[in-house]
Design a protein that fits this description.
Helices cover about 25% and strands about 20% of the residues. The chain has about 300 residues and is α+β, with helices and mostly antiparallel strands. The protein folds into 2 domains: about 120 residues, Phosphorylase Kinase, domain 1 (2-Layer Sandwich), CATH 3.30.200; about 170 residues, Transferase(Phosphotransferase), domain 1. The chain has a 5-stranded antiparallel β-sheet, with no helix packed on it. The longest helix is centred in the middle third of the chain and has 20 residues. It is globular, with a radius of gyration of 20 Å. The N terminus is likely disordered. InterPro entries: Kinase-like_dom_sf (IPR011009), Prot_kinase_dom (IPR000719), Protein_kinase_ATP_BS (IPR017441), Ser/Thr_kinase_AS (IPR008271).
Amino acid sequence: MGCIVSTRTLKSSGKNIKKYSPIDKILTSPCEVSHKSVISDYMSLSCLGIGSFARVFRVHHIPSHSTRAMKVIKKCNLTHNQYTSNNTPQEIYILSKLNNPYTTNFFEYFEDKKQYYIITELCEGHNLYDHILEKGLFNEKMASIIIKKILQGLLYIHNLGIVHRDIKPENVLFSSPFNLDIKIADFGGSCEIKPGQKLKGIFGSKYYLAPEVLNGRYNEKVDIWSCGIMTYVIITGKAPYEDIKDDDISEVILKPFQLDDEKAKGFSEECKDFIEKMIRIDPEERMSAKDALKHKWFKGV
């Protein structure tokens, strides 16, 4: 499905530069809400991806001469639980609260009768999953650098009372193709949590789901479990349950994940200990983001 549907000319440095601009085709009706700009300030350059619930475009912001990302979400795809009490989508509400080097920066949003248009910074590098596919696995040292940054992002959002609920390699973006600066992205399933509160509802990807999610009462420790599983994945290139049929995954997740000698072949003792403490079945025994950042695996990082 092509995303380039029309063109528009932008004057820059005295030259006419052709830019792709399908914004009028993305919109479903005149926008009603704008916080800093108007929708016509954006010109779409290309389509970055199409998922089940949203489309993401690379867009040019004319007033700032910057390139950003626009996520387009159909309102009919959102459930009641994905709105705040003020009828604002949780994703927009949460993004507006974030200001951290390890989470995607939010600029503004628009809405019309059928869709939301969320404007965030554009990360020019791959996501962590695609990076592995293209450039190969990370050694332990590189993995520890990346996981430490992810944990710093998780510590930040957990301190704000936010649970991401979908931590996985696809939702960790590299800011640039030339460094290891990362951003936690896609807060579509995230929500706020109060001290002592337990959440309900199954959000996230099956290979990274914490066991307590399936049991129906959980807190921010689900992000720690997911991060622990992700650590294993980016070092080995394997999902921990890859030999299990999809129908049996839920049953397997509820049992302790055994990091035996075969699965942890080549792992340092520090790395094994780190993963085991991240994926303990009992969330009370699982490390917090703060504790995890103090683990000896990060010594020298």
